[in-house]
Amino acid sequence: MEAWRLPLSSSIRGKLISAGYTSLSLISSVSSSDLARDVNITEEEAFEILRMANQSSGSSSCNGSRSLINGAKNAWDMLHEEESLPRITTSCSDLDSILGGGISCRDVTEIGGVPGIGKTQIGIQLSVNVQIPRECGGLGGKAIYIDTEGSFMVERALQIAEACVEDMEEYTGYMHKHFQANQVQMKPKDILDNIFYFRVCSYTEQIALVNHLDKFISENKDVKVVIVDSITFHFRQDFDDLVQRTRVLSEMALKFMKLAKKFSLAVVLLNQVTTKYTEGSFQLALALGDSWSHSCTNRVILYWNGDERYAYIDKSPSLPSASASYTVTSRGLRNSSSSSKRVKMM
Questions:
Q1: Do residues 311 and 301 make contact, with C-beta atoms less than 8 angstroms apart?
Q2: Dihedral in degrees, nearest 10, Cα atoms 311, 315, 317, 318
Q3: Which of 92, 211, 229, 301 is the most exposed place for a label (fewest CB within 10 A)?
Q4: pTM for the complete prediction?
């Protein structure tokens, strides 16, 4: 349950949400003195808010206990589910290989790296590839692209869409020679029509949009990927209170995980890098700190090795650590030319 549903005055509800207390679980996790300090209210008011939050959480838990008990799964079924999850190809077979076949649906995947490494290119590629029809091995879905930096290029999306249609036509041409296959009906314009683009210009807009996604996806059930480019930008630029920032981002990550599970879609969060002082020297690390690194299911780090781009599986519960090279061409992501060094197990 979300905080705005509590029977409070609009001013106190506004203070709660502005301070990052967007859900009952977040409110219930702090003391009345901490809540009073963060929200700038009296401790008596904070105590009353905690009482209402705990009551509401308790009733929700009781109502949901039966479905929780009846919802148990055995580990064998879970393994079968994991292996049969649909995946979105990156158009780079070497990268797909270390990802277990592509970007997994029902997971939140973070992809980070230095500027110019191709994060936005990957985001655009996935928003196109998720639409590949099922008869061509795709998901036949739609994409939501949340642009926080203004880096989405519609001309680039058109280029990649045109290349994708050409690849599908080549695939069906091959299938016609050997098997029965349908002609490709999809056009580049159709692909652009199926990318829902949102430009957000502040962290408050970003929070509001994420809160609205459940309703939007319920009304557009073919959505199979949500891309945020980047998750970091506004929270690094406009957010000075690090404790509050961590709380808000954790709640946002939880919402993304719930969306991924509820709608069986992939959430891809693009991230920036920062410098981190470790063992006497400064090193590059993904932004938002150590606590954020636990907020996603999978973490992929992009880096340069000489003149070649590489992707490294830094964290995943089901994938081994591995790296693969990739290149960005006019047609989108593709395998690197140095095929003998493409995939390296770490």
A1: yes
A2: 20
A3: 211
A4: 0.76
How far apart CA 136 and CA 168 sit, in angstroms, is 7
DSSP string, 138-174: S---EEEEEESSS---HHHHHHHHHHHHHHHHHHHHH
Task: Count how many Cα atoms sit within 13 Å of the Cα of residue 86 in the half-sphere of its side chain.
Answer: 20
Structure tokens at 136: 């061509």
Q: Helix (H, G, I), strand (E, B), or coil: what is residue 196?
A: strand
Residue type, 45: E
Cα dihedral 114, 279, 238, 251 sign: positive
Strand partners, 196: 144
Kindly state the tokens that stand for 33: 């003195």
According to the per-residue pLDDT averaged within each range, which of 38-42, 49-53, 74-78, 205-209 is highest? 205-209
HSE, side-chain direction, 13 A CA sphere, residue 216: 18
In this structure, is the dihedral angle defined by the CA atoms of residues 207, 208, 209 and 215, taken in order, positive or negative?
A: positive
Distance separating alpha carbons of residues 126 and 91, to the nearest angstrom: 9
Within 13 Å, how many C-alpha atoms sit on residue 220's CB side?
18
**Exposed (0-12), middle (13-18) or buried (19+): which is 247, by Cβ within 10 Å?**
buried
**Cα 186 to Cα 162, 167, 192, 194, 201, distances in angstroms:** 10, 12, 11, 11, 33
User: Distance of alpha carbon 198 from its chain centroid, rounded?
Assistant: 15
DSSP state of 5: G
Instruction: Give the pLDDT confidence score for residue 288 in this predicted structure.
Output: 79
Q: Which residues, in sequence order, are bridge partners of residue 345?
A: 322
How far apart, in whole angstroms, are the C-alpha atoms of residue 94 and residue 88? 14
Residue 136, amino acid: C
DSSP strands (E only) in 49-154: 87-88, 103-104, 108-113, 142-147
Asked if the model's pLDDT at residue 179 lies above 70, the reply is: no
